[in-house]
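User: Predict structure, ligand NAP.
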Amino acid sequence: MSAPRRTALITGITGQDGLYLAELLLAKGYAVHGLIRGQHNPKRELVEQLVPDVRLHHGDLTDQSSLLRALRACEPDEVYNLGAVSFVAYSWQNPHVTTDVTALGVLNLLEALRLHSGDDTSAVRFYQASSSEMFGKVQESPQHERTLLWPRSPYAVAKAYGHHLTVNYRESYALHASSGILFNHESPRRGPEFVTRKVSQAVARISLGLQDDLVMGNLDAERDWGFAGDYVEAMWLMLQQDVADDYVVATGQTHSVRELLDVAFACAGIDDWTPYVRQDAQHLRPAEVDRLVGDAGKARRVLGWQPRVGFHELVAMMVESDLAEQKHHL
Ligand code: NAP
Ligand code: G4F
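Assistant: Predicted complex:
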């Protein structure tokens, strides 16, 4: 007899990771449900086009009753909490809304899950999308699961709250709740506000003569950039373990924004990017995270996870995708 079909609920279904995770779970035979917010979400069409088999439920992480309704409607085996205000720079301008969604949203969802589960708290498995931004002013390198958190933005503070709360609910109520501490992961689906996509889009437009220059912030910041498609697999693997736990997910390689510019412009045949790029203080942050690099040894040992796509391949994938998209504007 075949195993019963498993059901998953994803918050943040319209985001980069939500789409990749939905594709992965559908390919594994899951019934996939997604939470979508707003009375007319402009990304609904994209979700319906890319993952038409996902069933959408209206709800918002700031509205606990909507979360409870979504849980009752789909009776999930696994819940992936990917919804967040996720742009670090925006979090200084809107610290309150960032806290409401990215921090208190986790509380709302965990409480809704507890109410929904009753006495059987381990029946539903929970994934929290934690972030390497929590390491902030890093206290050691590379960063691992026990590295001290030193968040440097309202976003990172909110993520640290969500991470600690997830651990606390696991310890207090025996919830199968795991926290994935994911380092930066990118793809052609990345929002254009993040640096990799901002660069890949600008490189495509500059090389096609559609844009003159690119205005950047701190070129010395270093990040451990991986491919989102690889990282959603780690999320799924965490929820397949008998015991819930916390895992760092990273490539172990770090590169500066300057190197990102080198590789991205070279992909479009431009060897010297200096005539096109200028810096402006408006893109500098009140407190910067200078250098992140992760140690994913535990994920490798316990989950058997490892990244497949390297930095150069990732940047080339993004530039090629943007070139194809921007050619329609010629
Ligand atoms: P993303 O593309 O910015 O997607 C964020 C998602 O959150 C969107 O679907 C958005 O929906 C949803 N959302 C925002 N406010 C909400 C609310 N009030 N209620 C419900 N949903 C809401 O982010 P991502 O890159 O896919 O990242 C997924 C998660 O991983 C996020 O929690 C992020 O903070 C975390 N993370 C990301 C990375 C990374 O490098 N990508 C690394 C570590 C952790 P709308 O479309 O309606 O706005
Ligand atoms: O692409 P970013 O905006 O990503 P950031 O701040 O590292 O955050 C991303 O990764 C986190 C995981 O570590 C996630 F939790 C978070 O949700 C998000 O997905 O900026 C990367 C670096 C920063 O140091 C920034 O100062 O690039 C630098 N940068 C330089 N010029 C710029 C720019 N970033 C942006 N967005 N735009 C610029 O013009």
